[in-house]
Amino acid sequence: MTSCIGCAIVSVQRIIYLMENKEALKGMLHPSELQVMKGDHLAGIIAAKEAFFKALGESPPRWLDVEATREKNGRPRFTLSPDLSQRISKCDMSISHDGDYTVAFVMLELQ
Asked: In the chain, where are the structural domains located?
């Protein structure tokens, strides 16, 4: 198995600006991810997805193949498309917010 790590930092202000373009958001985020329309919340999701695709080494990102969800205890996790589920045996992430920036780290174990 191969372990990979990805990191991304996102400006909350950039996401607030992006929130004006609903079509762009629909191309990047699942309806469930758009339930909380707050800049810092969406910045966390987008940072996590960017970090995921950096860890995977895929560009451009297939945004809708990954859905950010939460476990019962609030810990963030991903629901993956069937294609990605077959390639990834383990996925872990961390998201942190500080003022105008959000950072996310993702660790993957590839099959």
From this structure: 2-110
From CA 100, how far away is CA 10, in angstroms rounded?
9
Tens digits of per-residue pLDDT, 14-39? 999 999 999 999 999 999 999 999 99
* Residues paired with 6 in a beta bridge: 106
User: What pTM was computed for the model?
Assistant: 0.94
The dotted CATH code for 2-110 is 3.90.470.20
Q: For residues 29 and 26, give the distance between their C-alpha atoms in angstroms, rounded to a whole number.
A: 5
CA separation for the pair 61, 38 (Å, rounded): 22
3-state secondary structure of 58: coil
